[in-house]
Amino acid sequence: MRIGFVKMHGLGNDFVVLDGRSEALPEITTTLAAALANRHTGIGCDQLVVLDGSDVADFRMRFFNADGSESGACGNASRAVGLLHGRPARIETLGGILTTEPSEAGISVDMGVPRFDWDAIPLGFAMDTLTMPVGWEDLVGPTAVNVGNPHVIFFTPDTDAVDLARIGPIIEHDPLFPQRINVNVATITSRSAIRLRVWERGSGITLACGTGACATAVGAMRRGLVDRRVEVTLPGGVLVIEWGTDGRITMTGPATEAFRGSFELSDYLA
Ligand SMILES: N[C@@H](CCC[C@H](N)C(=O)O)C(=O)O
């Protein structure tokens, strides 16, 4: 059975998109998602994105990391799917309902309301999430934010000086985070600008992370370090994040379709 896909990216964070609304899809197991995402033996991507019907929104969107684990949110993929849709959309995700709409600067996504309670992150036990009394080597006193998926954010003088490939997986798998965690290292460069690198849970270092940009911006705003609208510069490019007085986060940035193709399902079933 052949299955069609669209290869897309948001600032270099890349996706394989399968559309279950236009063709029957198999059950997306951890093994199948990881096999499709494999850059050596599969199509290759940071996240597999699966679309299907919804009773409460225009359609439903699911996200699977490169290791096959499922996430409740993916900011860059939401813009990519918003681009694919071509007009405003309400989309059901595990992390809540999102809305996307084309804008002059690409695609804008209403990412919803962030959560800060320790058990909503979630953490393994109760603690302050604004300045957590924990640290890993030089990275200390992070803040934690859930934007449909869990993030911990470290503000450092120089994000490029952090050996994220080494420390990222250690923090991701720390028992403090029962659902693992996305690890953000950020440098504040002005009241309206942040530089950011992200170790993504289940995918490792990516060129950009939309939810990481949202969580970092909101974390910096809660700490009083930046204003309510910031430009977040990631290795792959810039996202604009605004935290409205209604509590909702809006993310705006580009999305790109790279190519389309198809694969033979039996090649990916063990
Ligand atoms: N690339 C993403 C986030 C993808 C999910 C994340 N790795 C998780 O497991 O929560 C983005 O653009 O937000």
TrEMBL record:
Ligase found in the keyword field: no
EC numbers on record: 5.1.1.7
Keyword tags: Amino-acid biosynthesis, Cytoplasm, Isomerase, Lysine biosynthesis
Example GO molecular function: diaminopimelate epimerase activity
Binding site for substrate: N13, Q47, N65, G75, N76, N149, N182, E200, R201, G210, T211
Active site (record annotation): C74, C209
Subcellular location field: Cytoplasm
Protein's pathway: Amino-acid biosynthesis; L-lysine biosynthesis via DAP pathway; DL-2,6-diaminopimelate from LL-2,6-diaminopimelate: step 1/1
InterPro entries: DAP_epimerase_AS (IPR018510), DAP_epimerase_DapF (IPR001653)
PROSITE patterns linked: DAP_EPIMERASE
Gene3D superfamilies xrefs: Diaminopimelate Epimerase, Chain A, domain 1 (3.10.310.10)
Family: Belongs to the diaminopimelate epimerase family.
Function, in words: Catalyzes the stereoinversion of LL-2,6-diaminopimelate (L,L-DAP) to meso-diaminopimelate (meso-DAP), a precursor of L-lysine and an essential component of the bacterial peptidoglycan.
Name of the protein this chain belongs to: Diaminopimelate epimerase
Organism of this sequence: Novosphingobium sediminicola
Gene (name only): dapF
